Structure formats: C-alpha cells, structure tokens
Amino acid sequence: MKIRDLIITPIAFRDPPLLNSTGVHEPLALRCVLELVTDDGTTGLGESPGDKEHLERLAVAREAVLGMDVFATTAIGQAVDAALGGPGGPVPTTARAGVFSAIEVACLDAQGKITGRPVCDLLGGAVRDAVPYSAYLFYKWAEHPAQDGRGPIPDEWGEALDPEGIVAQARRMVDLYGFRSLKLKGGVFPPDEEIAAIRALAEAFPGLPLRIDPNYAWTPETSRYVARELDGVLEYLEDPTPGFDGLASVAATATMPLATNMCVVSFETVRPAVERGSVQVILSDHHYWGGLRRTRELGAVCEAFGLGMSMHSNSHLGISLAAMTHVAAATPNLTYACDTHYPWNREDDVVVPGALRFTGGSVPVPDGPGLGVELDREALAERHRTYLESGRERRDDTGYRRRLDPSYDPAIPRW
Ligand SMILES: O=C([O-])[C@@H](O)[C@@H](O)[C@H](O)[C@@H](O)C(=O)[O-]
Ligand SMILES: [Mg+2]
Predict the structure, then answer these.
(1) Is residue 64 in some structural domain?
(2) Cys-Cys with 329: which of 126, 157, 190, 221 at CB 3.0–4.6 Å?
(3) Which domain of life is it from (predicted)?
(4) What does the DSSP assignment read for 269-293?
(5) Would 370 be classed as within a structural domain?
C-alpha cells in the first residue's frame, strides 16, 4: 500500500491571550494538517506545529516518502531523517523527529483505516478506555488589546491575573470538562503570587493533584524556596529552573518529584538527566519525540530508569488530541493526567464534532478505525484562508508582548 500523496495545509486559529514566562499567546495560533493519501484512496490525518521552518522541512520529507509503503514506518523514518541531513546535519534531532512524527501519525491513521482497527490497537492495544487530562490553567488578560486598527478581542474566559481569577478559571474548567487534576502555567508573576494561587487552588479543590510549570523562570535557589513552600501541596514541580544541574540541585532537596518537557527533550537527553538525578517525571509529546511508537518506547525507557511519565502539550486541535489519546491509552506507565490546550482552542477545530468528548476530565478513546476522527473540510479551508491572510510565519509570544509593552524583558531565570 503506497503513499500516493501528502497534502500539507498550514492553518491559523483563534487563541486567547494566555501568559507565560516568555510573553503572551498571539490572537492566532499556527498549526498544520497533513492528509496522506495511499494508492487505494485511503486518507490518513496528521497534525503538527505550523511554523515556517517546520513546513519547509515537511515539504522536503514529502518528496522522500512519496511511493513508500504506508506500513513501513521505520523505513519512512529513515528516509525522512536522511532527507533532512541526518544526525550531524543542519536540522536538529528534535526538529527531524517532529517532521517524522506528523507523517507517522498520518501513516498510522491510514493503516488503521485500511485494517479497520483503531490506532491504539496498532500500538499494542489500549490498557485504559479513557485518558485522563488535567485542566491547563493560565494567567490571562480579559482580551487581546486593540492593535493595527483591529480588536480588542475578548473571549469567554475573562481575566485571570490573581489567585481569585485562577480559582474561577479552574472552577469553570472543572465544571465544563470534569478535570480531576490542575496545572498552572507559572513564571508570569513573582513566585510568592504564584504560590498563593496554588494554595488557593488547594483550598478550593481539596484532594485534586496540583502542578505548576514556570518554564525555567526561577533560579535554583528560588525553586528550592517554592518547593519548600509547596511541600505537601504539589503532585509535581515542572521545569522550575534551567539545565540538568540546576534541576538536580532542586531535586536534591524537593519533597515532590520534578518533571520536565524542556530539559529532557529527546532520547539522547535522558541519560544526562538520569545520571544527575535531575528529574523524576518525563513529559512525553509525540510531536517532538518522533511519533506514537517512539512515545511508547519512551514509556519503556522511563520504566527502565524508574521515572514517571506524563504528557506535554502546546496549542492544538482535535487530530492531535486523538493521537495523544490513542498513545496514552496504549502506554501502561503513562499514569499522570496528560496536559492539553484543547479547551482553549476547540471552538476552531478542524475535525467533525462527536468523536472527541470529555467525561470526568477524561477523553474516551475514539473507537472508529485509525484515529477515529474525520476532517471537516470546510473548517480546514477557512483556517487555511485565515493563515494566508494573517501573513504569520511562526509563534512569537515575546515579540507580541513587546509590541504591547516595549519594556517587557523575558530574561530567564527571572526570579
Ligand atoms: O502554551 C504555552 O504558553 C505553554 O507554555 C507551552 O508553550 C509550553 O510548551 C508547555 O505547555 C509546557 O508545559 O512547557
Ligand atoms: Mg512544561
């Protein structure tokens, strides 16, 4: 069964003004949808980041995989790697893995449709019927400020700039989706304010596991202070400070596990983290780790080193959510609730509603063949038009924040 075509469609969709340690989300997030067509007319779907460099690499990879057997994903991975220059070439490991990932997911969706089996079955079968996700809480502005004669752009979530705002946002997320764990994106305000927000969440939601992720915004000393202050409150502390050694110096005294999606980002970065004891939980993300099968393999590596496994996310739509759900369902030791940005972006999804739903904070594994989701072609065409009209090429949280506030300084670590 040969790959006859690979259609790459960049899209842009609405994103609220979510704050993080590098700035603020722009009004539009970029993504890319892949349609892989086999010679019997089956179409497999994939979703990946939508920045210009990634799109260019996908176009190169496309030429390499046309005509290959859609079931030969190992050989397809090698062909993609070679087309992008391989190890030591100009394209970093995670970027090559990212290109292959999008194609692998589309191959697996096509394989599932051809064989009549859900993708989780192609990964060894589901060990859970539904995958728990955590509410991804963000400090946020009430609206995107007016600029270039456009806006302001308000949204249904309103402002969240203090503990009360964060608790109200969490309440709404829990009411709407039933989430049973909460993650706060930190690194936005001085640590004591974020500690107060976590304490307010602990009081408002007794028993719900809590996490905070400041994306390297704190020094090792500040991280140790936060860990002490939140002793007994956090399920895990994510990427408090930069680097293997910085994290190790925090892990040495912290009572809660440390987690990362910034320090351990590829198989070759597992070893230095394990040697130093930098982290106890690795956040997988099939978009960066080379696809769904490699994510399953990361599960085995975590098991071998006694590490926990969770899942990272970025702004995404339903094809990614379906892929995340299939791989998490088929990875026994992925036991922490996964991150997802989906509630922030789902209104602009490009899949036909129905296959993906949240119940009690979990997404039941779609049971149709492949990923179990169907493309809404009208929505795809509209998001593609938005992409073309936007003229945007890549995500730039810092640039956007600086246009609004020229004195903004995203130095890391900041506190
Ligand atoms: O969406 C955001 O602003 C997040 O900060 C995202 O970019 C991170 O990659 C991610 O969610 C994380 O856990 O670090
Ligand atoms: Mg993180």
Answers:
(1) yes
(2) 126
(3) Bacteria
(4) GHHHHHHHT--SEEEE-HHHHTSHH
(5) no
